[in-house]
Structure formats: structure tokens, C-alpha cells
Amino acid sequence: MTYEDATEETLSISEEEAFGLSRAAVMLDQAKQNRADKAALATALNHNLELWVAIQGMVARRDNDLPESVKDNLISLGNYVADTTFKSADGLKDETIDTLININLQISEGLLEGHAAT
Fold it and tell me: What are 36-83's pLDDT values in tens digits?
């Protein structure tokens, strides 16, 4: 069974988003561990950025019923991710990559906790 099959059959939207954020965090961590592979870091950063652009798009939809404070926080995090990503991949410190990883993991955890509460 592929990931796509599993998500279509068993995962909610929140769980899919949580999985995507976790996957992006793993990609960033692996790229950080192998700094010699600049292409892997660029790929991980681009993937993470695309994910956050999608999150911002969903948050901005009129039919999104999240509280305004949550929407504002997600938009701010997305802006931080974008600003950080547009910096040179060579110029990112490990601590900055760790921050991106932690953001993804914390939001992923929040999504799963929110899903479990429903």
C-alpha cells in the first residue's frame, strides 16, 4: 500500500497535514546531517516551503473556521518559513534548520492532538 492509498483510505485531513509536516521535518533533519549534499538541503527546504504555502492557502480560505488567533499564528509561521528558506542554503546555521524542524513537529503534534479531541 502506498502513502497515497493510505491517506485516501485512513487519514483525516488533519492527520495528512501532520504527516506532511513530520515528513518535511525528517527531510530537513537528514539534509542537515549531510551538509555536503547541498541539493538535498535545497530539496528539503523547497518541499517545506511548498507545504507552508499550502497551509497558508488553506488558512486564508473564507470557509476556514479556525479561530483568528490560530490563523494569524499559522500565517506568521509560514512567513517565517518563507523568509528563512529564501536565505542561501549554505548560509543557514544548524540552529535555524532545527527551528524549522521544531516548528513542523510542534504544529504536527497540535494537529494530531486537535484531531484526537474531536
Answer: 998 999 999 999 999 999 999 988 888 888 889 988 999 999 999 999
The grid cell for 79 is: 512567513
Query: What angle, rounded to 10 degrees, do the helices at 13-33 and 94-117 form?
Result: 160
- Which residues make Cβ contacts (< 8 Å) with residue 19, sequence separation at least 6? 3, 7, 11, 108
Domains belonging to the chain, first-starting first, are 14-117 (1.20.120)
pLDDT per residue as tens digits for the range 29-45: 999 999 899 899 999 99
- Spatial distance between the Cα atoms of 57 and 43, rounded to a whole number of angstroms: 21
| Enclosing H/E stretch for 113 | helix 94-117
